[in-house]
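This part of the workshop introduces the protein records we will be handling. A record pairs a protein's sequence with a compact description of its fold. Comparing a sequence with its tokens is the quickest way to learn the format. To make this concrete, we reproduce a full record directly below:
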Amino acid sequence: MKIVLGSKSKVKKEAIEQALAEVLEMFDKERDIELEFVEVESEVAPQPMSGNEALQGAISRAENAFQVFSKEAHIAIGIENCVHRFVNCNFEYWIDFAFVVALCNTGFTFISTSSGILFPTELVYKSRSGHCQVTCGQMMKDLDMVKNSKDPHSDLTLGALSRKESLIQPLKVVLIQALS
């Protein structure tokens, strides 16, 4: 069985490798699974600004990964983060989270989300302004708020939750459903 991830991101690769290993512990450990990684377009902005945009990006990544592997792939996975605006009375919150999508060659689709983390509102607005193509993570790194622009989660949670760790649970959810 071939599973393809629509990304070559180190964080995403490590997350799916760990999630798959943990899921296989629940199933037949001898299951023959080949994991492939392919860089594909998400067809959304570098910094998706809504859950809908991130969901579309994750679906596009999975669909595009399927297209690359044609009839070889059994399951294609797409992952896309976003910052999504929530409003409560006069307060505005921007939460970063990811959608994880598993498309199966049987026609089934499984979707889950990662846990969310609050991003500073002023940085979200700066990343949206003008022709800025910089992610919030990159802005936080440039301002020395975080060490790694690809994993601001680690610094924002004082090391309690990395971006990789935040992706493992939703990956396990969609993999369990897709492999069942």
User: Anything to note?
Assistant: The chain has a mean pLDDT of 92.
